[in-house]
Design goal:
The complex is a heterodimer of chains A (222) and B (110). Chain A is mostly helical and 222 residues long. The chains are: A mainly alpha (222), B alpha+beta (110).
Chain lengths: 222, 110
């Protein structure tokens, strides 16, 4: 019986991976060859079966290159991806919200300034930014939850962003009902957030889809 | 709209669909694809294993070594819940793709 492990290791000499991982790949592929050999053996002489099983490694250069690419390409876990793309979504939403406030939110900004002076507090833009980034991660998580049902794409991402905006607007409305936020300022805050979060979520979702879709190979028709 | 990734992702769909039925090792996956497609589709080693490793890296499938009674070891793959979540929209998009081809070129369910 051929030593499939040795034969496979010899054929994959160019496969440079961490030793333990390399051993694992060689073991797995040698099992594949052995299965092929066992399937052929009842039909053809042993030498012929061995030759045909080894033919599976004829594309070994491509195999080695593709395995190395696969090992390198996607080291990111889905959690890391969610956090990074969430940061992108939150960052975009934050910048859009800042821009919108600068353009149409003068009244709101003035009111916040007066309230701050009355309370004797100082603004912390970094904290605001961090809150947006955290909300961005949340909205990307929500997108991945919605995606299986509504399919991947900007519409689902916008829906996730819109739902975050709705929750924020309802929270702000509760402050209005308690008398802390005048209704006209609530409307300004809500309108500013309305385009920011759906657009931020669309950009974040686009980066998430890109990060997931690198590898894809068509089947080979015989 | 059918995404570029979907158009190129026939192999992902094939693997995830088979693994959604039952856990399988690489050789069995390749054999079943060939069998079920009547020999029209086949995976080479260079297309099968790199793709399985990618799917595993993404968390869509999980591989685990099993030792058979004869002492041989096999790496068996099973679809994860995350992989199942990916499969549903993938199937939907491929359905759209084939319907579009049918309208365009009469490519149907022969």
């Amino acid at each position: 019986v051929p030593d499939w492990r040795a034969l496979t290791a010899e054929q994959l000499a160019g496969l440079r991976l961490p030793e333990a991982r390399r051993e694992e790949v060689v073991q797995e592929l040698s099992e594949h060859l052995e299965d092929e050999f066992a399937a052929l053996r009842p039909q053809v002489p042993e030498e012929e079966a061995q030759r045909r099983a080894l033919e599976l490694l004829a594309e070994r250069d491509i195999l080695v290159r593709e395995i190395r690419k696969a090992e390198k390409e996607d080291p990111m876990t889905q959690t890391a991806r969610l956090v990074l793309c969430g940061v992108v979504a939150g960052g975009v939403a934050y910048l859009l919200a800042l821009t919108a406030f600068a353009l149409v939110g003068g009244e709101f900004v003035d009111a916040v300034r007066v309230a701050r002076a009355a309370l004797g507090t100082t603004p912390d833009p970094a904290e605001q930014g961090l809150l947006h980034l955290a909300a961005g991660v949340w909205v990307m998580w929500l997108y991945t939850i919605l995606r299986p049902r509504y399919s991947a794409g900007p519409r689902t991402a916008a829906l996730a962003g819109l739902s975050l905006w709705l929750v924020g607007a309802l929270a702000a409305a509760s402050w209005t009902s308690l008398g802390f936020l005048p209704p006209n300022l609530l409307v300004i805050a809500a309108l500013v957030g309305l385009p920011a979060w759906p657009l931020g979520a669309v950009v974040g979702a686009y980066s998430l889809e890109l990060s997931e879709r690198k590898p894809a190979q068509p089947l080979k028709a015989s | 709209m059918i995404s570029t990734g979907t158009k190129r992702g026939s192999a992902e769909l094939a693997l995830l669909s088979l693994l959604a039925d039952s856990p399988l090792h690489g050789y069995e996956l390749a054999r079943r694809i060939e069998e079920r497609s009547g020999g029209a589709l086949r995976f080479t080693l260079a297309s099968l294993y790199p793709l399985l490793y990618r799917l595993e890296n993404r968390g869509w499938v999980r591989g685990a070594w099993q030792t058979l009674p004869n002492g041989r070891r096999r790496r068996c793959y099973e679809i994860t819940s995350q992989g199942r979540k990916q499969l549903a929209p993938m199937r939907k998009e491929w359905g759209m793709f084939f319907r579009a081809l049918h309208k365009l070129a009469g490519v149907g369910r022969a």
